[in-house]
Amino acid sequence: MRQIFLGLLLPFSLTSTLSSSQGPEYHFQSDLNHNLASTSVVEPFYTTATRLVQQQMYLIARLEIALTEPDPNRMRSVRGQLTIQTKSVEGFLQRQYSSPKTLCTPRADSLINLSALPVQLTESQAQIYCSLYASSQELLKLAPVIDRLLSRRGELALVRQLPLVSGERQFEIVLPLAPVQRPNLGKPATPFSTREPDLTSSPLPIVGRGTKTAIANYQPPMQPAIAPLEEALTTLKAAKKLLKAAQVAFSRETQFIDSQETAATLDRFAYDIDPQEPQTYAKFLELSNTGIFRVLPDSAYRRQPNTLQNRLQASVSGRYPFPSLGETKAGFTPSLALQVVGDNFDLVHSGIDYGFMVDVGNLPLETLDGSLQAVASPMREFFLNYQPPQQLEALQVDRRRFLTGKDQNWQQSQVILAGAKAELNHTYIVRSLQFQLPEIIVSGQPISQQNSRSRAQLGQLQSSDLILAFRPVRRRSDGSYTILWRVLNQLPAPPIEDLENYVPD
After folding, report:
1. pLDDT one-digit tens code per residue, 292-328
2. Among 348, 344, 315, which residue's Cα sits nearest to residue 334?
């Protein structure tokens, strides 16, 4: 049984985005040496063809990533890999039959000109031969496209001159021995903006007035927006289709690695729940208003400073959004925005959203209901009776109280916060208040008295007030938790009565 045993496509880190990995999947230099050596020692047809098809599959996957990555080093590396792969395929084809253009004449039903089929090739071998040839010719069309795109990537990061493959000595006056510098495109290129501070937390925004920032007048750099060229995507699609025809011609025992499936599996392993977890808790998930979710460390949602990221690509929060807690209404959907910060569970506060939580110990979720009878008083009364202010300024004051624990006058002996220490098999009660402010309030743009449509937006506030509970049932080595959650009570949507006071004149 012929099987290929190749490494995984993408190096992977559980705390970084998948697309930022830089290591090559296999060493092109060693492959080149192997292919050059095979000119003297001819390998069996299927051994070489299997390796070349797999390498071409890897190359197509790298090209797809490079088209949307802002790092020029990734673009430079695939450009060189394309040249090496093309030469390797050409050498293999020439050793089998000297005129691929004659044999591989596209027809309505086949890529093969059967009248020109040489005696040394079977029909299935000719199918592999011509499919590999046609796919390689398609990929070769991308060479000028990559060269053009590389010049644009050079506007984002430093493109250094590469030393020789074997390395070159960098002579220095101070050091008696000159160090040898070797090319390394596996590392990201240095962005031109390299003085970005590492701000792990952003200041809490306050609607209606300005707030202090960690660095005065600092504006974070705008990340590039890179959309892949349609012509390049069309070429890659055609090359993949031709390569599929080559794979079909191999025997069933020959196994190929689908790098895109591997990458998707690794991504789910890093950020999503395990496939068997919903089955483990299937009985609980049969209850209404329940769900299962993986709570990630806050670092999973942050971009590392002084690195480039295509802002058009889906982030971790885009690929694995927070669970929805209700129906979408006018574009607004309440969600369980929860993350791990240090040793604590913390609610994510966007806009003017806020909430508070408390650890009620080892209390099964099934015993809880909307009346919170299983929760000791006076905590139960506070969760049920807390009334959010109906004025925007007062509402934001309460928000800061739950975040900081200061100036709390809830007539409780316990300080109630927006977070709590993370403990396995403990149950947490959460009161979550979420708001979708009208666009004219968020943008701060003035409206005229005559513009009745814009003024009508003031009455389009969307909000929700929910009491829910969650319970962590598993902790992973990366600090993430699998939690079960359940909505216990949906309270009336809180209004804000003075929004018109925050429209600029």
Report:
1. 999 999 999 988 888 899 999 999 999 999 999 988 8
2. 348
Written as six digits, the tokens of 37 are 């050596």
How crowded is residue 77: how many other Cβ atoms within 10 Å of its Cβ? 20
Distance between CA 75 and CA 98 in Å, rounded? 32
Q: What is the pLDDT of residues 34-65, one digit of tens each?
A: 444 444 445 699 999 999 999 999 999 999 99
C-alpha Rg value of the chain to the nearest Å: 30
State the pTM of this model. Answer: 0.82
Cα 207 from Cα 393, distance rounded (Å): 8
And the tokens for 301? 């949602």
Q: What number of other Cβ atoms are within 10 A of residue 51's Cβ?
A: 20
Break the chain into its structural domains and give their ranges: 18-196+224-265, 272-502
DSSP percent split of the chain into helix, strand, coil, nearest 5: 35, 15, 50
What count of Cα atoms within 13 Å lies in the side-chain half-sphere of residue 103?
A: 24
Burial class (CB in 10 A: 0-12, 13-18, 19+), 200: exposed
